[in-house]
Design brief:
With about 170 residues, this protein is mainly β. The chain has two helices and eleven strands. The strands form three sheets. Strands 1, 2, 3, 4 and 11 form a five-stranded antiparallel beta sheet that branches. A four-stranded antiparallel beta sheet has the order 5-10-9-8, with no helix packed on it. Strand 1 and strand 2 form a beta hairpin. The radius of gyration is 19 Å and the shape is globular. The two termini are about 30 Å apart.
Length: about 170
Amino acid sequence: MAQISENKVVTITYDLSVTDENQEKVLVESAEADAPMVFLFGMSGLPDEFENQLSGKQPGDAFSFSLTPEQAYGDYDQQAVVDIPKNVFEIDGKIDEEMLQVGNFLPMADNQGHHMQGKIVDIGEENVKMDFNHPLAGMMMHFDGKVADVREASQEELEHGHVHGEGGHHH
């Protein structure tokens, strides 16, 4: 049976819980058998420690582990919450009110052209307050799941750096 290692396509099901401010576990995401998580081990962009915890496991193996903020998406950074002038969001001189809603995530780019997701946290008269922290920054993450499948990645998948076909990327 194939073991999870570098350049393998891994299929897992899991429940992800985070520890809230009351130190209670809250379920935030599930990947069930009908919509599992499929990724290319070693090229997933997932936290290194997430992959380390799965390394060596085989189909049918269960897993249960926790990641600290340092092992995952870092501490919550107050400096990643910024005010952006409202006129930045104008398209042809108008603001799309549907788009500009508290809670929406918008794709943005910084002055160097780096792309990132920002969450709208407040809309004022002049500015829009956006949070560029990863949604799971500062949180203790708890994973409970099972390895559904492990297979060799195709040459094309390795060249592209992502999974193709079922559960993966389609060109």
